[in-house]
Every structure is written in C-alpha cells, then in structure tokens.
Automatic annotation (TrEMBL), chains A, B:
Protein known as: Stage V sporulation protein AD
Residue spans crossing the bilayer: none
The organism of origin for this protein: Caproiciproducens faecalis
InterPro entries documented for this protein: SpoVAD (IPR010894), SpoVAD_sf (IPR038369), Thiolase-like (IPR016039)
Top-level taxon in the UniProt lineage: Bacteria
Length: 339, 339
C-alpha cells in the first residue's frame, strides 16, 4: 500500500510494475543521439494529418497502442489512462485517445506531465484503484511554437536560452505489483512537487524557470528518505536543458548537495547540441516522455541502470499569464524507478 | 482500500471523509436561488484584481482557504491539492494556489473537474497516499467568454442553447477514513468516464455535447453496482443545463432507465432561468463546484439528503480543435457521496 515517508514522499509497499513502454518521435528526434532506441520515428512530422495538433494527437495514440502491444494488453484491459500535453485544453490527449475508449483523466503538469501521469498511475496500480493504468504525454514542435511563441512562418530568431520543443510522445503501462515478472522495472516511490516561483519572466528561458522547482522537489525527497545522490545510478531531470541543469546543480550546491556525478537531463540527451541547432536543449512533455520510454528504460531492462530518480519539470504558464505580467512558476514531480 | 467493482467503478473499503468544503461566487450567482448557501459572494466580480483571469485565481484561492478553515487545517497539513479550470494551461489554478505551497497536481477535465479532483483526492485519502488532500476548481464568466467565444465588448447575442459560465469556485478537503466524525459526508465509490463523442460541433450547445458522456458513465455505474435510480436521493449532474439534462434523460430511457424523479442539474439550480437571462442554464467548472460545495453538501450535513450521485460532465474541446473541424467530445466522472 502507499505509505507516506516524511512530508512529501509516498513509498509503494508492494511496488507496481511497468508492463510496457513505448516512444514515438519526429524526424529531428530520430536523427538525434537516441534515434536507434525509439519504437517509431516519423520522417513526415505531419504524420499524414492536416494540422500539427492532429499530428500530435496521433503521436500520442501511436505511443499508447505500441506500449499496450508490448504489455500484451488490449485497450479494454486498461482501467484508466492519465494523459496530458501542452496544448490549450489538452486537446492532443483528448483527440488522440478518444478512439481507445479507456476511462480518461486529463492531466496538466506542462513538461512535468510524464512524471505526474506515471506517479498517479503508479499509485492507482499500487492501491488497487486500477489493475492496469496507462500514463502518456506528447508534444510537437510546430503546435507548441505557434501556440506559445510565434507563427512558424514568421521565422523568428531564437535566443541562446531557448529550448526546442520535441516532437515526441512516451507511454507507459503500469500494472499492479502482483503482475511483476523477472527483469521488469518497478516504481519504488513518488514525490509530488510544490509550485516554485523565483520570478523568471522570460518565456524563452524555461530552464531557469523550472530549475528551482526541480531543486526543491529533490531536496524534499532526500530529506524525506535520508538518501543522497550517491545512492542512485542516475538522477534524470526532464527538461531543464543546459541553462536549467546548471542552475539546478548550483542551487543544490547551496545545500551542499552535489548531483553532478549522476545527473543528466532529457533535454540534453535528446539532441546533439553541437549539430542540431537546438540552443539550450530539448523540452516539451514529449521530450522527457520519449527519452524515459526508450533509452533509459531499455538501459534499466538491460541491467545497466538500477536506481533512477526521474524528475519531471514543468513551467506552469500561458501566453495570457505572461501578457498580464506574471512570472513563470515551475513544478517538479519525482518518480523513483528500480530495476 | 480501493476495490474495483465491475468494469468502471472503484469502491472505497473504508470511505474517506469530507472534512471541509467551501464555495465562493460572483454577483450573479449570489443573486441566484442558492445565494444564501455560499460562503462568500463577491459583488465586484473583478475581486479587486486587474484582470478576469486573476480574479478567477482569487476565487479559487479563497475557496481553498475557507475550506481549510472549516476543516481546522492549515495549508501545511495538506499532502496534495488537485486543481483545474477551463483556462489555457489551467492558469487560474496555478496562480491561485501558488502561494499555498502545497504539492500541486494540475487536472484538466473541463466542467467535470470538480468530480475528477474529488474522485482522485478520495482515492488518495482512502489508500494512504495522502492524509489530507484538497480538490478545487473554478470558472469565471468573463475569462471563459473571451477565451472560448467572443470578446465581452463585442456584445454577441447568445443562442437559446447557450449556457452561462458561472463565476464561482468550490473546494473540498478530504481526509483519511480514520478521521471521520459523526455527521460528516463520506465518499463511497467513484467511476471514471470514457471520452464519448456523438459528433456535436456547436460550441454554444455544450449540454448536448456532454449528455452522452453523462448517460454512459451512469449506465456503467448502474451496471457495475447493480443499483438503480431509486437507490439514491439525488442524481446530480453538473452541468448539462436544460438541453443537456433533457437529452441525458432521453438517452437513458432508451435503456429503460428513468432518472427523472431523482435527477437535478447544477446548471439548472445555480440561476433562476426565468429572471436571470441565462438561456439553457449555468456551466463552467465552478458551477458544479459551487453548487456541490454549498447547498448540496449542506443538505447532506443536515440529514436531508443521504445518498447522492454526483456526476461531473466536461466538454473536452478548445477553440483550435473547433476551428480545425473537430467535434466536441464529452467526459463524465461519478462520485457517490453518502451522509
């Protein structure tokens, strides 16, 4: 059963299990350093659809269908699906998953959505609220740019702090602890983050806006569990990029916590920053979703990584809030994965 | 512990308890038939803020603070808050709750958000994932109109099927089953709904778009539990309005289920349709939130209602999805409340 440890952390007594996971990405992501690890790479980032939003919906649908297949389950076996994305009213999720006929719980955690959906799905599987629950998220460079920043046709120049929204989706099928088989990944514990706001207002510097939330949730988790960075093989943030990753490490050093030896960031892993012109790195719900649901979990299944803290980070803003002079608050949720 | 009953319903073995609830509304709602039951009515619907969006954030914050007070709890006693609203990227929730420093899980269920947040908070409290969890939602007529329909200054004429987005918020503090005291309301079970789409495309007829989802979730629940309308004092939908309520009853009659004797709708209760010029009734996340967290729960605490099925209904669309030719899918989540 879920048991609270300290103030912010929930430990899974029996440890729900990841029965399947899948990632689907676009062309730029397929050409990146992790290209060979994704389940599906689309060279046409419209995916044959008539709009970027519909293409994103399709990414999410394909990721779920692939993950279900790998878990040997059908849509009718799933008790609920937790899904979210960056678009207004989470339409990628709604329209992408509509045909699956699975009880649907829309989530909004911005780029922390993969961690948020995975954490809730884990709690449902652990407690018996769901026998099988799916966690899924997506983002699409073109749908995000035109909604949050500029029309693509405008061709605006990007600042050095900007991150590149990944065209990608990741999906995970969680099962109850009793279903665990040899070699599968389990969720050991989760920590939900508090909204943190250091007053950053630059929507082209999301890494800086999210870094304080990431640092806070990690500090909370270490404090709750009495553990430290050396107890983990990997602390994986998603997605702080270069600026945010450096800031987070700097913030943690103020508390004398050095994660540099085990820290990596999905936004730094998904693209080759030297060759792919993405400035500070990748971002978008689908960035951490696809990196986690490909290379990272494959490394865990292969016995190369055992203890992974996955820390999803989100910037909770809208163009309207920014236009009204608001800063950009961040949030970060943590999921401790074990293999 | 949560136990699955049938295909879609989760029964709470020990029954988590509602420790506090509160509602905060605007002027029009305060002048409506339930005016005397709200905790707070604002005559100035800006709430002294510089934008409608900030006013909505404030509604949500006030509802949470009042509910915490009635539960004799502080923000630091709360393990997580589940919050959502209609605005892009759920900014009413983020900015309204930022200062409370409570672990935050953004939810998107459109007007089903009160049921969705309450259902998840109940599961968390039941399973031990949270000792105390808060569910909250809000809407504001002015922020919703300009985002989803027309600028207020345009003064567009409303069609007869249109519903009036309530300026309102509702908040509930859930506690673990062990905390129950005499006379308090408990959550007995919940059912999460599937996305349902009958192809309605008129964004001024949300009731029709949501009615099929409401009918489906209720049918699922009756089928799972073997119960029927006569087993309940009230089946409370929120918010179908006049058109949607009639349609839902008609859809259920096809399965020979007659709920008319026990059915009411928050969208029909919140305004006086004869005098308040709201056409088909009220809507918006805050409509069902405020009606549930005032008159309904007060009636339950007073022993006048014992068994209430609360069925939150949401239309999962955005202006973008409608502009791209999409229909308006609905979703409905059910919470069975007992006093």
């Amino acid at each position: 059963m879920p048991t609270r440890i300290g103030k912010y952390t929930i430990e899974m007594g029996s440890k729900p299990v990841i029965l399947g996971f899948a990632s689907v990405v676009g062309k730029k992501e397929g050409e990146g350093p992790l290209g060979e690890y994704y389940d599906q790479c689309h060279n046409d980032t419209t995916l044959g659809e008539s709009s970027w939003e519909k293409a994103e919906s399709r990414l999410q649908n394909e990721a779920v269908v692939l993950a279900l297949g790998k878990a040997n389950l059908k849509n009718t076996d799933i008790d609920c699906i937790l899904a979210g994305d960056l678009l207004n009213q989470c339409i990628s999720s709604t329209f992408g998953l509509r045909s699956l006929n699975i009880p649907f719980l829309g989530q909004f955690g911005a780029c922390s959505t993969m961690a948020q959906t995975l954490a809730i799905a884990s709690l449902f599987a652990e407690s018996g609220a769901a026998r099988h629950a799916v966690a899924v998220t997506s983002s699409h460079f073109c749908s995000a740019e035109r909604q949050f920043r500029f029309p693509l046709e405008y061709g605006g120049q990007r600042t050095p702090t900007a991150q590149w929204t990944a065209t990608a989706a990741g999906a995970i099928v969680m099962g109850s602890p009793q279903q665990k088989q040899e070699g599968q990944i389990v969720v050991n514990s989760v920590s939900f983050g508090r909204i943190t706001d250091f007053g950053i207002k630059d929507a082209a510097n999301m890494g800086a806006a999210m870094a304080p939330a990431a640092a806070q949730t990690l500090l909370d988790y270490f404090s709750d569990t009495g553990s430290s960075p050396k107890d983990y093989d990997l602390i994986l943030t998603g997605d702080l990029g270069r600026i945010g990753s450096d800031l987070m490490e700097e913030l943690l050093m103020k508390d004398k916590i050095d994660i540099s030896a085990v820290h990596n960031d999905c936004g730094l892993m998904i693209y080759d920053r030297e060759k792919q012109d993405v400035h500070a790195g990748g971002s978008g719900c689908g960035c951490s979703g696809a990196v986690l649901c490909s290379y990272i979990m494959q490394q865990m299944m292969a016995g190369k990584l055992h203890k992974v803290l996955f820390l999803g980070t989100g910037a909770l803003m809208s163009p309207t809030s920014s236009q009204q002079g608001e800063s950009i608050p961040g949030v970060a949720h943590l999921v401790y994965l074990m293999a």
